[in-house]
Every structure is written in structure tokens, then in C-alpha cells.
Design goal:
The protein is about 60% helix and about 5% strand. By secondary structure, the protein is of the alpha+beta class. β2 and β3 form a beta hairpin. α4 runs parallel beside α8, α5 packs antiparallel against α19 and α10 packs across α18. The N and C termini lie far apart (about 90 Å).
Length: about 625
């Protein structure tokens, strides 16, 4: 009888565990689905739910199409670190993500816009799945993914105060919610979500000392490697994630050590960095000032690392390996005094965030942070406190980086830091019982105010979705008959050498994306070609309504693409300098012609008015 009772008791334990597991999964799956649906709702194209469609987001499209030009070059087999449009000069922009898009498009036969959307969505949604799983396992709350789904909608109090979805600051600085940065599905979105996943993976490893040794070393090495690789995706994402990660480790080490001496040393180093940066900026540049700020984390990092030195060293070594290609390339360009890098660093402008704006517009995030931190302090959640305080120190320093001479678009760091907070909140908010947020008068007030402000900030989302659906944001259909005809014409007559140029009435960015061939164009803030001055001269002449063949020749232009529907006119003398290579018909209400012209004799001295070139239309 005793044996039967023990057997029955064991069966009951197994059955109860099975029921609890089923209940846990039944709560986790809907929470995860909600979070994914929330992200999809924010990021999907208006009126288009097919990620395979060959449509490119018209959302601040000039820069995004320039990045797509990198992908187009990679798809065409041009993966060098050069200016993407002309394939000359040097590019120091972190472009691995776009090269990967191009290689993926080439391997699958997809067009660049379709590959862009598929990989972008896969990265964002995949990261949400991983972080949701980590939040569940670390907090023990299967509903933890809901936090991500809700906070993706958080933003500045713009709609409530100014009836707009974003906040305009000085120059072109803006503040907006996570959706404003993630919607483009570009290298920044990929870097932030992938890097946040790596940050959470590292935190997961540290929180599980009972894991097998090999698993811990492998996972932490992977975490460090991924964080480093983000340097090759997007600069601001990498700098934000690096600062957040190091400050989290530093705060965790200081909390563990409980050493007043180390705390004082950290404070002194930070004070020195904030003051010293303004003294050395003109001599050493911006990045050394950023590194000087990070030196302040060393006392705390050492306090943390000495507790698990081999494990910490593994993460650091792989971080360096991941970041090395871009960092070394950038250092070489800086030492060589590359003119583009000098221009890029000096052109940050007045893009700071006033303190009042930081407090007022950031109040939904700030009150949420304070409420979670207060509860974690009460429950003595050391690891969660390290996450929250480390993030906040980096958030403040980076958002006001113009005050300590780093001066690199502070508003961008505000936006990227808020996105990282969304994922940190998914770990720290559920780790305490929900009732803890209403257990005392102080936490009750903080929690209610945070909820009200977050809910108020959700009002921005309607304005954001209206904006991306408006006529101001015209999504580009790369399946249009004209662009498909361009693609076919150029692919059948691939220029052997030199650059392809187009008529002012058409967009060279579109031509680059559909053809992948070297084009006489460049993005001033992305990279510069070798013959920048000559191409600038061609642009200037075009803006004045003049097509100057001599300038084109100096710029290395060998091919012209014309469209019979363009209004530019050709003079008879112009025809003597070119010969037709091929033509193709395409139909849009009426028949139009695209003509590819190869330079034969460009030794013409006359300057021809663009309106006189109507006989052959430049595309």
C-alpha cells in the first residue's frame, strides 16, 4: 500500500508539473503573438502586407535608397569598401548589413527592395521572439512579451502637446518613438535589435551560473561577437549598445563590490572625461572623447570581471573580433586624414536636446524607468538595478553628448537608447510581482503617472501611421514598367567601363537600385568618390539647365540613359558626340523609349541648354 501511495504521489507531481507547463505556454504564446502583431502593425507598409513585394519604403527615402545602392552593388558582385554609386574612392560607412542584403538578393533571385523588407522584418521580429523568451525565462512571467508589444508604441509627448507625431528640435534634430527608427528596416533597425538580443543573451548567461561551463562560455562569446559585429552595421547603434553594455557591467560590478573607493574613482574619472573632452576634442577628434567617457566604467568592470575573469575575457575578446574590421578601417581613414571623415565629424551641427525637452518629452520613459527602479530597489533586485541604472547613465550621457564635446547628433542617441529600454523593461518590469507597483503610496503614484504618460504618448502612433500613408511619403514600386525596362535594358547592355548618368527628370538613386552599375551620383553624407569635384561640376551644370559634355568626360561619364518622355531637349551638335547602343519600349498610357548612349567623341567645346536636347531625352 505504501508503494502504491508513493507511486500515486509521484504521478500527481508529474501531472501538476505538466498542467503548470501547459498553463505557462498558454500564457506565453498569446503574449508573444501580441508583441509580434504590435511590431508588424507599426512597421508594415500601408496597404501592403506582403514582405516579398518589390516596394521600397518612401520614408526619408534619400538616405535609405543610398543604402540600397550599397546592396545593389553587392548584388552585382561589387563588395569593395568604396563609394557605392561610382565604385571609386573609399567608404568608411559601416555597410555589412546592406552588403548582406545584396548577397541575399543575388542568391535568391529577389530584387533589392524585397530582400530589404524580408531581412529587415526577420531581424526585428526574430529579435522580439528571442528577447521575449529570455524575458519569460529570467522573470518567470510568461506574459513578459506583452511589455515589448506595448512599449514599442511609446514615444515623446508630441501629439498631446503639439498635435504631431514627432518633436522638432534645432536644425534637423527630432524625437520620436521606437517605430520612427525601426520602420525603415535599415541597418540601424537591424543593428539595434540584433545588438539588444546580444545584450540580453549576455545578461542571461551571467544570471545563470548553474549552466554548463561550455554553454556559458559559448553563449557569452556569441554575445560579445554579435555586439561587436553591430559596428559593421551602423555607427550610432554600435556606440549606444557599447555604452549601455559597459555601464550596465560597471554598475553591476560596483553593486557587487560595495566599494566606496571604486565608486569615488569612477565618479572622478567621469568628471575628468566630461571636462577633459572639451579640452582635447579639437586635437584628437570625436571618437577619442567617446572612448575617454568609457574609461569611467573601468573600475566597475574590473570589480565585475575579477569574479569571473575567464568568462568576461571571452566576451571581451569576441567583442573586439566582431568590431575590429570597421574600427580598424575607420582608424586608418582617420590617421590618413580622409577628407570625408573630417567633413562628417565636423558637420554634426546644433543637434542637441534641451534639458527641458529631455524631461518633458521623455517623461513617459523617465517615469516608467523610475517606477520600475523603485520596485527593484525595494525587492533588492541587484541584477535588475544594474540593468536600469547602467542604461540610464548611458542614456543621459549620450543624449547630452554635445555638453562633453563628443557632439555627434545627440537626438539620435536618445532615440536608440529608448529602443534599448523597451527590451530592458521587458526583463526588469515582470521580474517583480505586479502588485509591488501598487504596494505603497509612492510606488502607486509613480506607477499611475507612468501609465497615464505612456498611454498619452501612444497617441503619436496614429499620426505616424497617417504620415507614412500620406502623399508626402510615396512608396516606390520597383515593379513599375519604367524601372523594369531600365533594368532589362542595362542588364542586356552592361557598360564595360565608366559611369552611367541620367537626365535630371529622373532619379539616379532608382537607377542604381535596379541596375547595380556604377552611376554618376553620390550621397554627400555617406561617402565621396575619387572625382568628387568633377561630379559636383556636372551636378551644378545640370541644376543650371546645362548638359556639359566636357564636364561629363572629366567626371568619367561614359553612358547616358534617356527617356522619350523627359522634357530635356538635345541640340543637333550633341548627337555628334554620342551613338546609340540599344533601345527598349515600355508602355505607360503611351509608348516611351529608353535609349542607352555610349560616349564616342566628347571633345565638344559648346555648352548646350538642357531644353535644346529634346530630340534625345536624358533619363
Amino acid at each position: 500500500m505504501s508503494g502504491m501511495s508513493e507511486t500515486q504521489s509521484s504521478l500527481e507531481v508529474v501531472q501538476n508539473a505538466s498542467l503548470r507547463s501547459q498553463g505557462t505556454w498558454s500564457a506565453f504564446v498569446p503574449s508573444l503573438v501580441f508583441s509580434l502583431f504590435s511590431a508588424w502593425t507599426l512597421l508594415r507598409l500601408p496597404g501592403n502586407i506582403n514582405p516579398f513585394s518589390n516596394v521600397f519604403r518612401g520614408y526619408f527615402s534619400s538616405d535609405q535608397l543610398s543604402y540600397a545602392g550599397i546592396a545593389a552593388s553587392a548584388k552585382a558582385g561589387q563588395i569593395g569598401l568604396v563609394e557605392p554609386f561610382t565604385q571609386t574612392g573609399s567608404s568608411f560607412y559601416p555597410s555589412w548589413w546592406y552588403k548582406f542584403i545584396g548577397l541575399f538578393a543575388g542568391a535568391t533571385g529577389l530584387e533589392v527592395p524585397a530582400a530589404w523588407s524580408i531581412l529587415g522584418f526577420s531581424m526585428v521580429l526574430g529579435s522580439i521572439v528571442f528577447i521575449s523568451c529570455a524575458a519569460w525565462r529570467l522573470s518567470g512571467k510568461p506574459w513578459a512579451p506583452i511589455v515589448i508589444g506595448l512599449l514599442l508604441w511609446v514615444g515623446p509627448l508630441a501629439s498631446i502637446l503639439f498635435d504631431t507625431w514627432l518633436v522638432n528640435l534645432n536644425s534637423h534634430a527630432v524625437l520620436w518613438g521606437p517605430y520612427g527608427a525601426l520602420y525603415a528596416l535599415n541597418g540601424e533597425a537591424a543593428g539595434l535589435t540584433l545588438g539588444s538580443s546580444a545584450l540580453i543573451l549576455g545578461y542571461w548567461v551571467v544570471s545563470r551560473p548553474a549552466w554548463p561551463r561550455l554553454a556559458r562560455f559559448t553563449c557569452l562569446g556569441l554575445s560579445g561577437l554579435i555586439l561587436g559585429v553591430v559596428a559593421n552595421f551602423q555607427t550610432y547603434s554600435f556606440l549606444t549598445l557599447t555604452a549601455v553594455t559597459l555601464w550596465i557591467i560597471a554598475v553591476g560590478g560596483l553593486l557587487k563590490a560595495k566599494s566606496r573607493k571604486l565608486l569615488i574613482i569612477s565618479a572622478v574619472l567621469l568628471t575628468f572625461a566630461l571636462i577633459g573632452g572639451t579640452l582635447i576634442r579639437e586635437t584628437v577628434g570625436a571618437l577619442p572623447v567617446y572612448a575617454l567617457m568609457l574609461i569611467s566604467t573601468l573600475p566597475g568592470i574590473w570589480a565585475f570581471a575579477r569574479l569571473c575573469l575567464p568568462l568576461a575575457a571571452t566576451g571581451f575578446v569576441f567583442f573586439v573580433i566582431g568590431a575590429a574590421p570597421q574600427v580598424i578601417w575607420l582608424i586608418l581613414g582617420t590617421l590618413d586624414k580622409d577628407p570625408f571623415l573630417t567633413y562628417r565629424v565636423d558637420q554634426s551641427g546644433d543637434l542637441g536636446i534641451p534639458i527641458w525637452a529631455f524631461i518633458v518629452f521623455g517623461s513617459p520613459v523617465l517615469f516608467a524607468w523610475v517606477a520600475i527602479l523603485r520596485v527593484q530597489i525595494i525587492r533588492k533586485g541587484t541584477k535588475e538595478i544594474a540593468l536600469l541604472v547602467g542604461w540610464f547613465v548611458a542614456f543621459v550621457l549620450l543624449s547630452f553628448n554635445d555638453s562633453w564635446a563628443f557632439s555627434q547628433e545627440p537626438y539620435r542617441f536618445w532615440i536608440t537608447s529608448v529602443i534599448i529600454f523597451v527590451f530592458i523593461a521587458a526583463l526588469t518590469f515582470p521580474s517583480a510581482e505586479t502588485s509591488a507597483y501598487f504596494s505603497s503610496k509612492g510606488t502607486r503614484i509613480l506607477s499611475v503617472v507612468a501609465i497615464v504618460l505612456i498611454a498619452a504618448s501612444f497617441w503619436n502612433v496614429g499620426g505616424f501611421r497617417s504620415y507614412v500613408s500620406s502623399k508626402n511619403v510615396k512608396d516606390i514600386n520597383f515593379n513599375s514598367t519604367q524601372l523594369q525596362a531600365i533594368s532589362q535594358l542595362v542588364s542586356e547592355n552592361t557598360p564595360a567601363e565608366g559611369l552611367l548618368t541620367v537626365e535630371p527628370c529622373m532619379d539616379p538613386l532608382h537607377v542604381k537600385v535596379v541596375t547595380g552599375v556604377p552611376v554618376a551620383y553620390y550621397n554627400l553624407g555617406l561617402a565621396w568618390p575619387e572625382n568628387k569635384a568633377e561630379i559636383d561640376a556636372v551636378f551644378k551644370a545640370g541644376e543650371a539647365g546645362v548638359l556639359d559634355i566636357n564636364l561629363m568626360q572629366s567626371a568619367g561619364v561614359s553612358y547616358l540613359l534617356t527617356d522619350s518622355n523627359c522634357p530635356t531637349a538635345w541640340g543637333s551638335s550633341m548627337k555628334m558626340g554620342v551613338s546609340e547602343v540599344d533601345r527598349i519600349n515600355y508602355l505607360v498610357k503611351d509608348t516611351r523609349h529608353l535609349t542607352l548612349l555610349e560616349r564616342l567623341n566628347l571633345n565638344l567645346s559648346n555648352r548646350v541648354s538642357a531644353r535644346q536636347l529634346i530630340l534625345w531625352k536624358i533619363f
